[in-house]
Structure formats: structure tokens, C-alpha cells
């Protein structure tokens, strides 16, 4: 077995550490029930449209898995300005039956493109004050590339296909905004 010698003023003597764990031949390893349960953990998609304040911690906890080494998040928040106007809040409306169906399709598309474990998409409806989250998307996967790419795809596709409308409320006025990405918005 290889070893690494460490000599430091913190130690009074040289310490040898193995570079690789010892091999155990002919061991009668039996996986525990917990190991089997983790392997059989079913993938889940959690979709929620709510008027309640969104919690990054709560949404990220929904996708954590012992099988995954990555959880990627997108958190969209209300900013305090738009084109020189002071934004007080945003207001969101959605056609819920179609919105939920479109988000389910996005989750299915993600599963076709990347090896991800769990997906959570939470979107706030109603008034969303400055600095609060309007949307949280969380994806877990074994490795970071899949979850990072899936989160980017999810927000881009959601903005393009899901029937959610946003009203920007300014100090003196308000304005309904269509997403530039939406296929049904004319870009004249």
C-alpha cells in the first residue's frame, strides 16, 4: 500500500497516512436497508403556484437527495427599478390549469435532456414586494452540470411558454408586461 509522509511542527513524530483505502477481499458485504431505500428513491417534480411568500430554504430542501452531489437554484426577485422608474412591487396572474400543465411539460423535457433527480418549481402569484422571490426553481442531480443546465432551461422555457402575466407597480402608475420570450407576444 502507498503512503504519504507528513512532517509538521504540529506533530512530534512523522505520521503516515494511506493514499487509498485497503482492499478487502472476499468480504460478505450486505447492503443495508437504508442503502437499498436510497437507490430506490423515486424522482419527484414539485410544482406550486401560491400567494404565500416563497422560501429558498424550503424549496431547496424538497430536492435534496443522498444520491445527488448538486442542487442548483434560480431565484427571481422583484427589483426596485425598471427603465428609470421606481418599482414598488410586481403583481402576477396565471391561467393555472394551463400554467401547471406547461410546467409539467418543462419537467418532462428536463428529464429527457439531463440525468436529474428532483425538480421543484414554485411561482408566486399576487403582489410581490421589492427583494422578495417571484420564482424559485431547484434541481438536484449527481453532478453540477446537469442541474445547472436544467435550471437555466427551466427558467428560459417557463418565461417563453407558461401563461403568467406580470404587472409592474410604480410610484405613480402601473403597467402589465409581457415576457419578450413568449411566443404569443408580438414584438413590433
UniProtKB/TrEMBL annotation:
Cytoplasm as UniProt keyword = yes
Any GO BP annotation:
Mo-molybdopterin cofactor biosynthetic process
Name the enzyme group at the top EC level. Answer: transferase
Which residues take part in binding substrate? 143-144, 159, 166-168
Instruction: Keywords in alphabetical order, please.
Output: Cytoplasm, Molybdenum cofactor biosynthesis, Transferase
- What GO cellular component term, any one, is given? molybdopterin synthase complex
Q: In which pathway does it act?
A: Cofactor biosynthesis; molybdopterin biosynthesis
Where is this chain's protein located in or outside the cell?
Answer: Cytoplasm, Cytosol
Instruction: Quote the EC number.
Output: 2.8.1.12
Q: Does the keyword Nucleotide-binding apply?
A: no
Q: Which Pfam families match?
A: MoaE (PF02391)
What catalytic activity does the UniProt entry give for this protein? 2 [molybdopterin-synthase sulfur-carrier protein]-C-terminal-Gly-aminoethanethioate + cyclic pyranopterin phosphate + H2O = molybdopterin + 2 [molybdopterin-synthase sulfur-carrier protein]-C-terminal Gly-Gly + 2 H(+)
Quote the function comment for this protein.
Catalytic subunit of the molybdopterin synthase complex, a complex that catalyzes the conversion of precursor Z into molybdopterin. Acts by mediating the incorporation of 2 sulfur atoms from thiocarboxylated MOCS2A into precursor Z to generate a dithiolene group.
The record's misc note reads: This protein is produced by a bicistronic gene which also produces the small subunit (MOCS2A) from an overlapping reading frame.
Q: Which family does it belong to?
A: Belongs to the MoaE family. MOCS2B subfamily.
Name of the protein: Molybdopterin synthase catalytic subunit
Q: Which gene encodes it?
A: MOCS2
Amino acid at each position: 500500500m502507498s503512503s504519504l509522509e507528513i512532517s509538521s511542527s504540529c506533530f512530534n513524530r512523522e505520521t503516515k497516512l494511506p493514499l487509498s483505502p485497503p482492499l478487502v477481499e472476499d468480504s460478505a458485504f450486505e447492503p443495508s436497508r437504508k442503502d437499498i431505500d436510497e437507490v430506490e428513491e423515486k424522482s419527484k417534480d414539485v410544482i406550486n403556484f401560491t400567494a404565500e411568500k416563497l422560501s429558498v430554504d424550503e424549496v431547496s430542501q424538497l430536492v435534496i437527495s443522498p444520491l445527488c452531489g448538486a442542487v442548483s437554484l434560480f431565484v427571481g426577485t422583484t427589483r426596485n427599478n425598471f427603465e428609470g422608474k421606481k418599482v414598488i412591487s410586481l403583481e402576477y396572474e396565471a391561467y393555472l390549469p394551463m400554467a401547471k400543465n406547461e410546467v409539467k411539460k418543462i419537467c418532462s423535457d428536463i428529464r429527457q435532456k439531463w440525468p436529474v433527480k428532483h425538480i421543484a418549481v414554485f411561482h408566486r402569484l399576487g403582489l410581490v414586494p421589492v427583494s422578495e422571490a417571484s420564482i424559485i426553481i431547484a434541481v438536484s442531480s449527481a453532478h453540477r452540470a446537469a442541474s445547472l443546465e436544467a435550471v437555466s432551461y427551466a427558467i428560459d422555457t417557463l418565461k417563453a411558454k407558461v401563461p403568467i402575466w406580470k404587472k409592474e407597480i410604480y410610484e405613480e402608475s402601473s403597467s402589465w408586461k409581457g415576457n419578450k420570450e413568449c411566443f404569443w407576444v408580438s414584438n413590433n
